[in-house]
Amino acid sequence: MIPFMSVLLMPIFFIALTSFKEYGAIMSGIMFPTNPTLENYFNVLYAPGFRFIDYLVNSIIIAVSSTLGCVLISFPTAYSMARFKTGGGTFSGYILSLRLLPPIIFALPLFILYQSAGLLDTHIGLILIYIVFNLPLTILVLKSFINDIPIELEEAALIDGCSRLKIMTKIVFPLAMPGLVAVSILTFLACWNEYLFALIMTAKKAATVNVAASLFVTAYAIKYGEIAASVMIAMLPPLVFMFLVQRNLVRGLTLGAVKGP
Amino acid sequence: MKLTKYLLIIPTLILLLALTLYPTAFAYFLALHEITVQTFRNPTFVGLDNFIEISFNREFWYAIGFTTLFAFVVTPIEMGLGLLISLLLDRPLSGKRIIITLILTPLAIAPALFAVMMKLMFNEFVGLVPYILNSLGFHYSFFRDFPSSFLTLIITDIIQWTPFVFIITYSGLQALPREPYEAALIDGAGSKEIFRYITIPLLKPLLLIVFVLRLMDAFKTFDTVYIMTGGGPGFSTTTASVMIYRASFIHGNFGLAAAATIFLLFIASVASTVGIRVLSKTGMV
Question: Residue B153: exposed, middle, or buried by beta-carbon count in 10 A (0-12, 13-18, 19+)?
C-alpha cells in the first residue's frame, strides 16, 4: 500500500513544498524548504497586473451558477424519464453519448456561434455550456435516485388528489435530497475543474482560475514558486468538496449505474 | 399527464438543441466552406474540398492513431492498478477511511492543474523526478524526445485516474455477496481460483462500465497534453483534441478544422455506440 500511496500523493506533496520555498531554494534544488515563506502566495494574490482574485471570483460565480442551473433543469427531466420513460432509449442514449463524445467536437462551432451572439468572454456564456455538458451526469444520476423512491408514495398522493407538480416538489424533491446534494457537488467539481471551454471561450473578463494558473506557466515560465502557489489555491475548493461527496461518489462517477457501499 | 411528461423535459430539450444539435449542424456548414479568420465574413462554398483534404492529412490520422494508442495503453494499466489497490484494501484495516480519502485526492484536482504539477515534477531544473534520477547517477531531461514525453503523459494519466478505477471496483468488491465465497472455501478452492472464478465474473459488469468510461475519457484527453507537451516535440504527442484545437484556434483554418471535427464525430460516435451497447447490457441506460 505504502508505495502506491506515496506515488499517488507525491505530486501534491511536491507542489505544496515548492509553494512555500523561496526563489533561491527552488533554483538550487533544495527539496525541503529551510525558510518556509508565504511570499509566493502573496505574490500570486496581490501581484500588480495579475488579477488572480478576480479569476477566483469568476470560478466561484461560474461553478455555483452552473451547478444550480444544471440541477434545476435536470431534476424535472430526470423525474419525467424515471416515471414516464419519456423519450425512451433514444433520448437517454443521446444524453449518455454526450458524456462519451469528446467535447472538442462542439468547440469550434460553439466558438463561432458565441462570437456572433456576443457571448464570448461572458459569465453567462460559459455557464450555459457547463450546464449543457453536465446534464448527462445530473440527469442520469438523479434518474437512478428517483427510481429508488417507492412509487406507492406517489400513487397514494395522487389518490388523495395531489397534483403532479405538488408530488414532484413536496414528495420526490425532499426524498431525492441525498441525490441532489451528490450531483450538485459533482457538478461543482466538474465545472471548477473544466479547462477546454474555459480556455476557448474566455479571455480577460470571465477567465477561470484554471486558465489563469495554466497561463502562469507559459507567461512566467521561471516563477516556479508562484506557479505552485497558484495551483495550490486553485485546487483547494474542489479538494474540500470532494471529501463531502465521498459517500455518493461512486454512484456519480458511474452515472448512477452502481450504487456504491 | 401526457402533456406534463413532455413539459418537464422542455428546458433540457431547448438547451440540447441550441448548444449541441445546432452547433453540430453548423459544423457541417463550416466544413463545406473555405473559411478562415480572415475570410470570416464571406465564406466561399467549396463542396467537399475540406473533407478530401482531411482524408489525406497525415497529421489528423496520426493524431487519431496516437490518441487511440494512448487510450489503449493507459486504460488497462489503470484498471490493473485500481483493481489491485482495491483488492489490497478489501479487508479490515485500521485507518482505512483515511487511506481511501488520500487515494482519492488526485480525482478532485483539475486535470489542467495536475498537468501543471506534473510538468514541474519532471522539470529538468527544479523537478523531483530528475532530482532523484540525478542522485542515482542518471542524467536525463524529459520532454526532449517522443518516448520521454509519451512516458510523462502516461504516468500523469495513471496517477490521476487510477483512483477512479479504484473507488468503483472497491465499492463493487464491498457489495459482492458472501455466499459464493463460503461455498468455494468449503469446496477447497484456493485464493487464486476464487479470484479467477468468483470475483472476476461477479465484477464483470462493473469492470465493463469502468473500461468504457475510462477508454472514452482517455480518448478525449486535451488538458494534460496541451499543458505538458503542447503536442510535441514536433507533432509526436498530439491528440485528436489538441490537433483540432490548434487547427481552429491557432491556425484559424475554420473550414478544415470543422471537417476534422466531423470526422472525429463519426469516429467517436462509432466508439460510443459500441460503448453504449456494452453499457446497456449492464443496465445503465
Answer: buried
Spatial CB neighbours of B229, under 8 Å, sequence gap ≥ 6:
B143, B149, B152, B153, B237
Whether A16 contacts chain B with CB within 8 A: no
Residues A22 and A104 in one domain: no
Preferred mutation among A101, A218, A251 to probe B, highest tally of B CBs within 10 A: A101
User: Which residues are CB-contacts of A225 (< 8 A; sequence separation ≥ 6)?
Assistant: A18, A19, A21, A22, A23, A26, A39, A40, A43
Q: Which residues numbered 23-62 in A keep a CB inside 8 Å of some CB on B?
A: 26-27, 29, 31
Residues A71 and A181 in one domain: yes
CATH fold for the domain made of B48-281? MetI-like fold (1.10.3720)
- Report DSSP letters for B225-260, one per residue: HHHHTTT-STTTT--HHHHHHIIIIIS--HHHHHHH
Q: Given an 8 Å threshold on Cβ–Cβ distance, is A76 in contact with B5? A: no
CA distance B84 to B79: 8
pLDDT tens string A138-195: 998 899 888 888 888 888 888 888 888 888 888 888 888 888 988 898 899 899 999 9
Judge if A25 and A82 occupy the same domain.
no
More confident residue, A105 or B252: A105
Q: How far is A118 from chain B (nearest CA, A)?
A: 15
Query: pLDDT grade, residue A66 (50/70/90)?
Result: very high
Minimal Cα distance from B250: which residue of A?
A200
A260 within domain boundaries: no
Cα dihedral across residues B117, B118, B119, B121: positive or negative: positive
CATH of the domain at A85: 1.10.3720.10
- The string of pLDDT tens digits covering residues A179-207 is 898 889 889 989 999 999 999 998 888 88
Verify cis geometry, omega within 30 degrees of 0, for the bond prior to B233: yes
Interchain CB distance below 8 Å, B108 and A242: yes
pTM (2 d.p.) = 0.89
Spatial distance between the Cα atoms of B245 and B252, rounded to a whole number of angstroms: 9
pLDDT mean over B227-240: 88
- Considering only CB atoms, A231 lies closest to which of B100, B116, B284, namely B116
- ipTM metric: 0.88
Domain shared by A15 and A90, yes or no: no
A168 and A153, same domain (yes or no): yes
Given an 8 Å threshold on Cβ–Cβ distance, is A5 in contact with B103? yes
pLDDT tens for residues B178-232?
888 888 888 888 888 888 888 888 888 889 889 999 999 999 999 999 999 888 7
**Segment B251-274, tens digit of pLDDT:** 888 888 999 999 999 999 998 888
Q: Which residue of A has its CA nearest to B113?
A: A231
